[in-house]
Amino acid sequence: MKILVLKSSGNKKGSSAILADEFIRGAKERQHEIVEYSLTGKDIRPCRGCNACGMNGACVQKDDYEKELKDLIRKTDMIVFAMPVYYYNWPAQLKVVVDRFYSFTTELTEMHKKTVLLAAAWDNTPTVFRVTKAYYETICDYMQFTDCGMVLGGGCGTPDMTRSSKYPAQAYELGRSIC
Ligand SMILES: Cc1cc2nc3c(=O)[nH]c(=O)nc-3n(C[C@H](O)[C@H](O)[C@H](O)COP(=O)(O)O)c2cc1C
Questions:
Q1: What CATH number did the domain enclosing 52 receive?
Q2: What pLDDT is attached to residue 51?
Q3: Measuring from each residue's beta carbon to the nearest atom of ligand 1, which residues come in under 6 Å?
């Protein structure tokens, strides 16, 4: 399977990257093909809502989304959303990627992608992932994605905290379980 891992944190060696790398290590052991894509430094602009695409056409913004990410998404079987939790939600840079699904919503929905959520947060409270998880599940429903698993790393506030938690092992096992 071809797996696109979207890394959304500016901390390239941060907590969500640790979870992503462990997922990748597990998935590679199962011979999956991995495409890593870091959003950091990319020119990916928010949807303007102009509707020129009609939800099914080219976007008027010729940025890195339209030039490279859209095609990577098209050609992949699975999308892994790796993220830090920001104010109980997805970080803006990754939310923009989802908003930009708009230009090919019909096409993407019909592709029935598989997805994974890997999230890191400082807090380890019952509510810290409530919105992040609910948003992910709602997007999976709407886009007809099949959720293949989540790692919700509470208490993963720094790379050291993350490395000493149980979550890198969970991410690795999830990567190994993908079929
Ligand atoms: C703008 C911002 C907002 C944050 N909001 C939350 C939050 O709502 N809850 C939480 O537990 N941690 C929050 N954090 C902490 C990060 O989620 C946490 O440090 C995470 O490990 C960062 O992952 P990274 O190393 O991949 O960037 C926030 C951090 C930043 C920079």
A1: 3.40.50.360
A2: 97
A3: 9, 11, 14-17, 84-88, 120-123, 128, 156-157
Joined together, the tokens standing for residue 43 give 């020119």
Nearest residue to 94 via CA among 10, 172, 179, 152:
10
17-23 average pLDDT score:
99
How far apart CA 136 and CA 147 sit, in angstroms, is 9
pLDDT tens per residue across span 100-138: 999 999 999 999 999 999 999 999 999 999 999 999 999
Average pLDDT over residues 132-152: 98
Q: Give the domain range for residue 7.
A: 2-177
- Candidate of 81, 122, 163, 167 to mutate for ligand 1, largest count of ligand atoms within 8 Å of Cβ: 122
What's the number of domains the chain is made of?
Answer: 1
Residue of 86, 117, 164, 165 to test ligand 1 pocket, by largest number of atoms within 8 Å of CB = 86
Would you state the pLDDT for residue 43?
A: 98
Spacing, Cα 167 to ligand 1 middle (Å): 16
Atom of ligand 1 nearest to the CA of 85: 17
Query: What tokens appear for 167 in the block?
Result: 């979550």
- In the numeric block, the tokens 């919700």 are attached to 152
Q: How many residues does this entry show for the chain?
A: 179
Distance from Cα 86 to the centre of ligand 1, integer Å: 5
